[in-house]
Each structure stands twice: as structure tokens, then as C-alpha cells.
Amino acid sequence: MSKRPDFDLRAIVRTNVYSLDPYRCARDDYDQGILLDANENSIGAAVVKKGDDDELTRYPSPYQVEMKRDIAAFRSIQPDQIFLGVGSDEAIDTLVRIFCVPGKDALLITPPTYGMYKVVANMNDVKIQSVPLTPDFQINVEETLKAITPETKIVFLCSPNNPTGNLLATADIIKVLDHPALRGVVVLDEAYVDFTTQGSLAHLLASYPNLVIMQTFSKSFGLAGVRLGMAFASAELTAIMNKFKAPYNINQLTSQVGVQAVSQQGLAQMRSNVAVLLEQRALLEKEFKAMPQVAHVFPSDSNFLLVRFTPSVDAYALYKKMADSGVVVRFRGNEIHCKNCLRVTVGSPSENQELLRQVSALAASPEMAAK
């Protein structure tokens, strides 16, 4: 049963988008037989691996039925609740363009958070309402609810959060979803969800028509190179997203890899890889905490750690020196509540050993001393 019976999707979707008549492509009508309807090259592809000619010379399915079926089974949702995009960034851009009138509407972010929400807002001339997380990187519920206006069409929440690594409290997320002044949607970015013990909040979709959940194949599945992201929402909203997207946004090669990834064999491999990364995350956390130059290692539910160095160490200088020496991490000290912090991705066992060796040696050197 819906906990937001007052939510009216049609009232917040841009009028021109709601009434959009999508492009009708050749594969909407037929996808089998002698296909001479889409002006494809019937002689063959110029660059192929043997056996790929037939698939690569044809436009891909705009519906991705097999992949959506397996994703739905994996996440315990329905296939018609799924949108697939070129990474999560396409889902972000699609949602902003569906809901936000340029120069009029706004989206709300909770920094420190994933930077693309702000970039996409600026690309689309959408106002940005910013309410920082608390110093322990949780939603400042009172201030967030207070900041919501009739123009707030999207609230972006990232959990586990990037760049901090922690889960946002579910009770706080629900408070935002329940807030009667919010006429727009809450977009919960779960890019790192498979590294948590809590798991996805996709079950909340049954109760909250104003919830959108984003996930990706880039992190736990280890497929950042194929650029494949997902958004889950009500069937009514995903229908709008799917008619808004370009008809062939998921290419044939990406589709093949995505189908393999959510097969039973692919899911087993993903879980095995995640288990190794979690072991390595625990090892890195232990080793960092033992270093006298490290002030704090923040709790992580992700495949990375946010590490704060003591005031005696210049974290930016350390980041630059390590990069010059072949180990690249991210300096996050310019983010709110992240002073003197580096974000460190959990690597392979050998990569992590080299990381620890360099941090231990360089952080103690005089040239890394804070000026």
C-alpha cells in the first residue's frame, strides 16, 4: 500500500515530456525474419570477432527484455520498473530533464556527495539547493526538510555515500520520502549497495511512488568500462523514462555483457569478487588505523575508505607524491567535513600492499609535513 497516496506524478512531470510521442524505431514492429526495414548493412560489420556479424550489423533491442528479466529477479522487483542507461549518469540526466523546468525548478543535494548531480543541474539550468550532511555524514533531516520548496523536484541522496563510504540511516531517508511538502521525487543512489550488509532499499518502491533507486554495473560487477546503469521506480515513471531515452541507448556489446553479468554464473562471480574486496577493505582499515600519521579512518560500506591524516601531514602533497610514484588515489580535502582526507579505492591484494608501503613511507617523510 502506498504511503504517499497524495503523490501525483503527472503533476510534476514537465508537460511536454508527459505528452511526448516517442520515436518509433524499426525494432518496435519486427525483430525477426529478413530484416530490410532499418537501412542496416546486410553484408556485414567491418570489425568483428567471428560469429558476431549478425548481431553487430543489427540495431540492438530498445527493450533489453532478457537483461531486465534477470535484473528484476535479482533485485526482487518487476521488469517494467527498470530503466537502463549509459551509466547512472544517463539516469541522472534523464530524471532532471523529465522533472525540472530550466530556470525555474530545483534539485536538492547533500554534500559531500557525488559530483554529477550538481554538474547535470548546471548543464540543464536547474537551481541547486544544498544542505550539507552532518559531520558524521548523515542527513541533516531538520534542515533538509526545511529547505524543500514547491520548486524542489528531486532530492538526491547517495547511500552508501560517495566520497564518505557510509550508509545513510534508512529512517532518515523515509522521513524525507514522507515529508508532505515534497511534491517531487527522492532519488536514492545505491551504486555501492552490494558492498553493504543491509542490501538495497528497493523493497520501499512498493510503498513509495516518489522513490527512484539508481544502481550500476560499474562497482560490484566490475564493469565500469561498458557504461551500464539502472534506475528502478514505479512502472508509471519508468514508462516515461523509457519513452524519453534514445531508442538504442544500450549498444549490442554492452547488452551481451550485461546479460552475462546477471546470469547465475555472473552473480556468483560478482559475489565472490565482492567477498575478496571486503576482506581487503578490512585489511586496509586495520593497517591505516595503525599508522601514526592517520587521524581517522571513516566507517565504510563501500569499496573504498575515506582516510583523514593528522594535521602534521599535508594530504594533498601526499596525494600528488603518490601519483607521481604510480599509486593514484583521490584528494577529497576540498569537500565539506573532509579536511585533509584522501579517498582510497580497495585494490587487488598486491595493489593494496604497494599502497600501504607508499603511504607509510611518504607520510612520515619531512617533505609531506603540513606547511
Write the layout of secondary structure elements.
Layout: H1 9-12, H2 15-18, H3 53-57, H4 65-75, E1 82-85, H5 87-99, E2 106-109, H6 116-123, E3 127-130, H7 141-147, E4 152-158, H8 170-178, E5 185-189, E6 211-216, E7 229-232, H9 235-244, H10 252-261, H11 264-289, E8 294-297, E9 304-309, H12 315-324, E10 330-331, E11 341-345, H13 349-363
Parallel strand pairs: 2-3, 2-4, 4-5, 5-6
Antiparallel strand pairs: 1-7, 6-7, 8-9, 9-11, 10-11
Care to describe what's here?
By secondary structure, the chain is of the alpha/beta class. It has 2 domains: about 10-25 and about 60-260, 3-Layer(aba) Sandwich (Aspartate Aminotransferase, domain 2), CATH 3.40.640; about 265-370, Aspartate Aminotransferase, domain 1, CATH 3.90.1150. It is built from 13 helices and 11 strands. It has helices spanning about 10, 15-20, 55, 65-75, 85-100, 115-125, 140-145, 170-180, 235-245, 250-260, 265-290, 315-325, 350-365, and strands at about 80-85, 105-110, 125-130, 150-160, 185-190, 210-215, 230, 295, 305-310, 330, 340-345. The strands form 2 sheets. The protein has a 7-stranded mixed β-sheet with strand order 1-7-6-5-4-2-3, with helices on both faces. Strands 8-9-11-10 form a 4-stranded antiparallel β-sheet, covered by helices on one side. Helix 5 (about 85-100) crosses helix 6 and helix 12 (about 315-325) packs across helix 13 (about 350-365). The radius of gyration is 22 Å and the shape is globular. The model has no long low-confidence stretch (mean pLDDT about 95).
